[in-house]
Each structure stands twice: as structure tokens, then as C-alpha cells.
Amino acid sequence: MSYVPGQPVTAVVQRVEIHKLRQGENLILGFSIGGGIDQDPAQNPFSEDKTDKVNGWDMTMVTHDQARKRLTKRSEEVVRLLVTRQGLQKAVQQSMLA
Amino acid sequence: MPAELTQEQSPGNQTSLAMMQEPQEMVEETVTVEEDPGTPTSHVSIVTSEDGTTRRTETKVTKMVKTVTTRTVRQVPLGPDGLPVLDGSSPLGSYTDSIDRRYLKNGERYLPPQASSTLTRSYNSYGEGPDGPYRSFHTHDASGGYGGAELPDGYGSLSRGIGYRPRYAYVPGNTYRPEDGSYTLPSRREAYGPPGAQPQVPPVGSGPDLTVSSRSQPERFQPEPYGLEDDNRSLGVDDEGYELDPDYSTVNRRLPVGVPERSRPHKGRAYDEPSESEMIDERIPYIHGGYAAPLAQPERGSMASIDRLGKRSPSIDSIRKDPRWRDPDLPEVIAMLSHPIDPVKSNAAAYLQHLCYENDKIKKDVRHLKGIAILVGLLDHPKAEVHRRACGALRNISYGRDHENKVAIKGCDGIPALIRLLRKTSDMEVRELITGTLWNLSSYEPLKMVIINHGLQTLTNEVIVPHSGWESEPNEDSKPRDAEWTTVFKNTSGCLRNVSSDGAEARRRLRECDGLVDALLHALQSAIGKKDTDNKSVENCVCIMRNLSYHVHKEVPGADKYQEPEASQAASTGALPRRKKDDASCFGSKKAKGKKNGGMDRNFDTLDLPKRSESAKGFELLYQPEVVRLYLSILTESQNFNTLEAAAGALQNLSAGTWMQTTREKEPPHSWGILSKATLPQGALQPGSGVFSPGTPGDLTRAGPCMRCTFMDRVCVGPLTGPLRPGLVVWVPTWASVCVDPYYRGRSYAMAELVRNLPSRQQRTAKNLEEDTVVAVLNTIHEIITDSAENARSLVQTQGIQKLVGISKSSQSMREMKAASHVLQMVWSYKELRGALQKDGWNKSHFQSAVSSTPKGSKGTPGKAGYDDSTLPLVEKTHDNERCGSRDMIPMDELGPDGYSTIDHRERKYRAGDPSGDASEKEPLKTDPARKPPHRSNRASVNLVDGRDPKPPPVDSWV
Predict the structure, then answer these.
(1) Residue A6 falls within a domain, yes or no?
(2) A70-92 pLDDT tens trace
(3) What is the pLDDT of residue B866?
(4) Which residues of A touch B936 (CB under 8 A)?
(5) Is A5 part of the contact surface with chain B (CB cutoff 8 Å)?
(6) Residue B323 — very low, low, confident or very high, per pLDDT cuts 50/70/90?
(7) CATH of the domain at A45
(8) Domain range enclosing A34
(9) Which InterPro entries does this one have (chain A) (predicted)?
């Protein structure tokens, strides 16, 4: 699932809605994220899920830190994600072939 | 009240940053307009592209506020007959008088002073208006009308299609209704001459102040409610029609069916001598559906009359449904500016502001109708409401590329009046309006000096200094204040940014302006401390700094000392250099830096430096070492393109000039420039201050993949005596090309030049390059080949490997060795190159240097140990990652002390062993030798700093 940053991506996505937890002052989601355009994809251990959008914001071209901030915005209790993963892509492709 | 920001860059001022030999002033002009609150706000940005063309984008955002003008209605005491109670002298009457005086030259004045109308009408006999003779005519000629094609432009506020009609239905609720019920709006069949209008206001049918109730003599006018309160008129939807329709009359009024007007022929009323050619250039027939809509007709000169006939006398109820009031037209509005009753003035001004919003024609017409002078006069009005509104109108009028309006404001001493008001008022909104107006005015070249002459010190004292948080006489107990990024500050800094581009004299004035430079720097330090470097105010400040840095070496007192390196060496006799030399602390005064400087002081406090007896202040701050650090911090922090460019430009301005010997590489297509052998003025860099400290090349990856700039490298190493000659090597890509060429695919062009500059064993003495320069070049090469196999290949092809290996194996300098081996390691990491390399006789051992195991810091000077390991271009990235991983845990006060350099505190933190910092900070080069260089690989992963830390995992953040 390679793409050029800034270029449109066609992907099968899954909607995910996460209600954040309150942890002290912060709102947390409860998982960790990796990657970002400032990161080396080869070094990313979590390459399964790709987050394409967070609450409508394009996340395909953000740095790691930007993504983190976007996800943990205190003003937003809920994040709605569009995520994709290779497995999902393949599954859909196969089902279409079949 | 969202501001509209317009940026104009005059092409002549655009410079390539790569033009090192003759660095040009980099100036930007910024024009803002904040439009009136009663109109839809929009964001307009004008960016001048390189060819000088301007593109303008506009986005309607929202409509905001409704200006209520009916207040005045209620404020007018009504007499028993429902008419406003007029005192003996009759304010309204005197109003009329004043109008008469103003507008009437030859016309006869036959109106009784008690005229109750607030509006001037000249329906008849224009003798000679101020603007020239007009053909006289009688407006009460019932048959008179506007011929469709003959219609001149009207000046009404808004063109209304009939489609907008329903909007008025709700309006008249609180407007005055005359008893006789005949408030049908007079149709504007009559033509009204331009400014020569002659007020004729009968006492009849008086209405609320704002009610147009004038009538021409022979005809009886009925007062009619017209609504300035109808602010919904200014909805964005209208604006399109607004643009398309040259008709500016206020309301296209639908006339009741069967009303006599309807049958009136719309014959042109022969305007033989249009006073303003532009007033007629947009004549169009005005016919809306079946409506005569006379009011909406474009009227020449727009002394639109109000229909004064009692013929249409709908009931009040029908008025509600089908109101027949209309807006005052432009001359009426302008006349109302001189109304004796203050609320009328303010409402008129507010309405004018509204009308002028995004309408260049109206602005021009206001000018022609001499409205600007009246507005300027109102600036001195004691009532806040009045001068506020006047100022708002002036702001809108001053906006735009029609410089005539700006000139007109200046022409009636508007600039001193604005400044005067700024000194007088403490009302934030007024201050915003004033400074916004000045910002607008400052975009016009000839006005810049005027603004400087009248307002520089006031703007500095009233806005820049207080909002910057800088205190010239700081209370020792009080905490240093941060800058407040207020609109006022933004506007003012924008204004100063513009005026700072007005040449040497302007620069001198700004530099010498008491407290200005100090305050700007304080604000910028505050911005960095707060990590708030993207906003417009910061951009403005950096731009001012850049402009003031231009030619600073020639223009500051004592500059002649810097002209020659020899002179600068001997400059210890010079006043300025000596002072600088004695200045021990970095960014000058404590007052200017407050606690933010603490970190830096700590950095250098091991140096035995004499105390600064006299801190740098004012323009001296422009070329203190700290300011370079400041710019570098901005370069690494900010994501605002203009800010980045300005900071780079400031550095360029500082590093360019005759006080340094500069050499410039022949310009490749993308124009990189190399400054080398740069000498800085004596004292500008303090011993040990480490301006371009080792390893602080800024990699602007934070600004996104499309902006990358390599800033290399240090000027001073170790205790320095004499001029700081060696090696300011600054790579400045032409910023335009940064945009065009996001990933710098083209940067290999510089390779040959770089390699040529590297010493080979034989050349070493010949070229006599300083260690710093060599290291800088090596780091630059590293930067260039990072992520680019292409560039690495070009390095191989230019026979750079031989030199690199030579340096890495046998250089006298540990730093050079390290830097060279880092480059080699990077080269080797490109598997696809190995074949070629091996063909050339290289093998892995050449690229796997032992240097990385060398203890680092051997060359460090006492105060700079923290920098010493960071000879690599990727340090910034590293820090970035570190921050990603751990910043959330860092208490802010830990970050606080060092306001200058984000590098510093991270370095310290790192050195303090912050584990999370460690985790992402260091990564051995060869972790993944097979990795392909992607567009954007993990730059942290190629951190070459000694390879001391094992295996940093990629960053991931717990969210």
C-alpha cells in the first residue's frame, strides 16, 4: 500500500469511532500509533493499520507528532477514524474476484 | 472580525536568497484589511507570484454582525406630531445648513432651517457643483426618469434585485412611520447631480434621523423609513450581484403595482456632462422585472432623490410587508457624516464602512464625494462611537490596490489623525482599526515614510513594546512577560514590516527607534519559548528583522570598521566593535531576554568572559550572535513559510555584505549559494558563543517534506580572537525552488562544486580551508545524499569518494574525519551503488570507519560540549523524534529557560539522560543497510552522531 504523500489514495477503509478516555487532563485513546511522514516506514512495527482520516482530517501526510496531536485533541471527545490495512484490502479484492 | 490579509510582494523586492554577492533586501509588503463587522467577512489573499502578477483569492466566510442603526431613531425625541423635536436652532436644520455650505455653491437655498430631513437632496438646478458645472434640471419633473441606457451609476449602497425583496419585510419594525402613511419610497426618477447636490429639506414629514424625508421644493416628501438597520442586505449572496451590477443604489425598490411611478417613462435625463467619466462607464439599463424600481436605478452622482410623492400611500401594515423605505445613497450617507447628531454620524460611518466592503467603486466614489476628508475629520471626534466608526470606514476604504484612496487619506492628514487617535484611545477595537488602517496605508510606497515620520515612535510605544512583553526598565521581581499576539500587534507589526522596506532611511529610522528592535526580539524569543512561531505576528516581526538586517553592515554607525577584514581585525579601536567585544553575555541585556536566556547563559558561563558593562540594545541587537541563534530556532520551529523565508533572509543579510568576503558558487538552476570564508564583524560573535554551533544545521523537515533547507554551519569554534573568519557556510536554497521541487531532486548539481571544495591531501594546504568549512561541506554533502541515491551516485561520479576516504582516514581533524566517515557510511548504505564503488576499487572497509567509536567531544570548547557531537545534519530530526516520543512528559518549565534555542534544551535534556529521548535519538547508521531511500525516510534512522546509542526503535506514541 504505497502511496506518494499528497496524492490521492484509493483504499478500502474501515470506519472506527473511538470514545476517548479521560486520563487526568488528557483524553486518551488507549493505543499507540507509529509512523508519519517523518518516520521511516521500514522501522514501523505497526504496519497493519493505516489511519487515513481522523475526524475528517487527512492523515496521510502528517508527521508523527501531528498525528498524535490530532488524535489526542482535548476538545474532541470522540474520534472517528478511517483506517485501512493491507489485509482488508486483500480481502475485498478477493471477494470481488470471487 | 477576521482580518483579511493581503500580501503583496513587489517583484522588485523579491530576491533570490542565493544572491550572495549582492544580497538584496528582502522585503515583503503586507496589506491587511479587516473589514467591517457588518459585512460578510472574507479572506482575501493576494500573493504576488514571481512574475509579478497577482492572484487574488477570496473566500466568503460568513457574515457577521448586524449594524443596528435604528438606535438613533429612538434617540430622537419626537414631538407631538411625531416629528423630531427640534430645538431652536434645529440640529436638523443646521445639518441642512451645513450640507448647504458643503455642497451648495450656486444653488439657491430655499429651505427653511428647520428642515427635518437628514438627507440632502438636490433635485433641482445644479448650478455648478464643486466638481464642475452640471446641467441643471428639475427633479420634480414627474416625467423625468432615467432612461435605461442612459443611467449613470448610482451610488446607493447596494443593488437589490427584486429577488431580495422579502428581506426587507422584517425591517421596518422600529423605524419611524410617518403618520400620514405616505412613506412610500420615492422613486428615483430624478437624477441627482454629483457632489453639487443641494440640500433641500422641507420640514415636512420629518422622520427619525436616519429617515430620508427630504423632498424637493415643489413636491411634498414623505418621510419614509429606510433601514440602515437592514444589515442583512450585505449578505454574501448579494455581493455577487453587487459586483455584476453597476448599480450601487441602495435598494431596488419594487414599486407597488399601479403606482404612478410605474408608468413613468424611464427616460434618460440627459446627463450631458458627467462629472466623472468613471461614473458613467457602467451604465446599464435598470429594469427589474415589471418593476420600475426607480430607486435602484443607477444614478449619476447618485444624489438620488427620494420620492417625495404622496401618491403611494400604503398603510403601515403594508409597509411592513412591503416596505418602501430605501437606503440612503452614497452622497446622503456622506452628508450624514456631518450631521450634528453624533449617532447619525457614527451610523453613517458604519454604513459607509459596510458599503465600502469589497467594493472598490464605492470606495472611489466616496473619495470623489470628498467623504474621506470628513471621515478623517471624525477621527478626532470625542465620542468613541463616532471615531470608531469613522476609523472602520477608513480601514475599508484604505484597503485595496487603489492607491488613490490611500493617497486621499494621507492628503487630508489622515495619518497623523490616526496616530493621534491611537495615542488617545485605549479602546482595543479602535486600536485594531487604526492599526489596520495604517497597515493598509503602509502598503503604498510613497506613504511609508509618512507613516514613519508621524507614527513610528507612537506605534512602537503604544503597541509594539507593550504587546511584545519587553520592558526597558524591568522590575527585577516581575517575571518577564510574553508577547501577546493581539490583532493590534499583528496589524502594527504588519505596518512596520511594510514601512521597513522603504530603503535605507526607513531602515535607519526603524533601527534607531527607541525600543523597537528590543521589543521585536523579545517578542520573537517569546514566540520560540512558547513554540508559537507560525502566526502572522511572528512572521511580521521576522520580516522586520530581516529588513532591518539588510545592509546593516554598511548602515549602522561604525559600519566602516567592518568593511575590511583587516579593519575588523583592528577594530578593537572602533567604538562599536570594542563595545561588542567587551560584551560578554550573549543576547545582551537581561531585560531583553529575561529568563529565557538562562539556558544560554549557563551554556557559556564556564567561559571566562568579561561582564558586559553595557548591554547591546537597539539596533546593536540586530547583529548579535544571539540573533543568529534566534533565526535558527525559528528555522527549525516555524512552519510558516514566510517566516522561514524571512529568517533565512535575515541570516543571509547578516552573513552577506562587504564585511564578509563571500564567494558564491556559480548559480545552478536552482541557485544554491555558498557563503564561505565569511568574516563577521569583530565582536558580533563572542568567543565561545557558538553561533552556528556544530551540528545545528537546520533540517526543516518539520515544515513538511516540501521545505527543506540545510543550514550549515558554524562560525566560531573555540575562543576566537580577531575576526571570525572561517567558514560560515550557508546553504540557502532559493525558496521558490523549494516549492517547485519538493524533494530537491535537483540538488545533485551542487555536488561537483562541493566535492571540489573538499581538500585532498595535496590541496589541503593550498586551499587552506578551515576545519569548520570542511566539516560544513561534508555535512552538506551528507545532507544532500541523504534520501537520494541519485545524489549519492553523483557524489561517486564526481570522484568524491577518494577525497572522503582521504579525509576520513588521515585528516588532522577529528571532526573532519567523523564528518567524512558519516558521508561514506551513507554512501555505502545505498546498495545499488556498491557495484560501482567496488568497481572503482573501494570496499566496505573504506566506508566503515572506526571514527564513530572515537570518543567525542575532544574538540569541544568548554561552553559548547553540548554541541560537539552534533556535527550531523540530522540532529534536528532527531530532536524532533525525541520530542514526539517524550515531549508530553517534559514539564514546560524545563523547556523554559532557553528561549533562544530549541536545540539547547533538547540537547541538555538528552544529555541528562532522558531515556525516552535516548530511545529515539540515536540510531546506528547501518541498522538497515538495505533500505531503499524513499522520498522521506526516517531521517532519524540515519543519524550519524557517533553511533553511540544502539538501536533506537522508531517512534511510536501512546495516544
Answers:
(1) no
(2) 788 888 888 888 777 777 777 77
(3) 32
(4) 5, 37-38
(5) yes
(6) low
(7) 2.30.42.10
(8) 13-96
(9) PDZ_sf (IPR036034)
